[in-house]
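Quick check before the chapter quiz. The format below is the same one you will see on the exam, so make sure you can read both the input and the output lines.
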Amino acid sequence: MRPPLLLSCALLGLACTEDPERVPACDERCEDGIAARALRETLKLAYNLTLQANPVGEQDESSECPLGGRARVFGFATSNPLQGATEVDLTYELDRCAVFEIDEEANESYQMLFDGTLTQTGIMAVQPSATTALVMRSETMSLVGTVHDPPREYVALGCAVELGQNGNDLAGLLCERAVGVDLGGGPN
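Here is the expected output.
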C-alpha cells in the first residue's frame, strides 16, 4: 500500500491554518514596525503613482490608492542625474488611502488604511550610487487595519509620526513609541 500523498494547502489554493509554533511572535514593537514599513511603502507608492515621470520643480498630483481612497503629493522635487538622486521637499495628503501587501515574511505583510498629512524632506536614491536619506513627519496620522501574517488588528488614531530613513534603515517614533525597521528585511 502506498503512503498517502501530502500536498500543502497553499499548493492546492486553500486557506492554510498556521502552526502557532512556526509563526514568529509579534509584540507591540513588532506591530509598530510593520505599520511604519506600511506607511513608508505607501509613501513610495504614492510618489511613484503621482510624480515618478514628472519634470523637476513644483509638484501637485493626486492618484487613487490601490484599495480605495486618495493620495495627493505636492511640493518641490529636483534631480541630480550624476549622483542618481532626487532631492524632495514634499507633502503627502493621504485621504483614507488603503493598501495591501502579502509577503512570505510574516513581518512584511499588512492591510492598512492611512488618513492624515505627512511631510517628507531629503534625498531619494534613484541609482545604486546614491543613498536614500529622508525625514518624514506628521502631527496627526491615523493607521487602521491589520499587520503581520496571520493578521493582527492594528489601530493608531491621530498619532504623531517622526521617522528617518538612512539607506534601508527606517527608525523613529510612531505614536510616541520607538520603531526600527530594516526595509531590506524585517523589523530591527
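If your answer matched, good. Strands lie at 57-64, 70-80, 85-101, 110-125, 133-147, 152-166, 169-174, 177-182.
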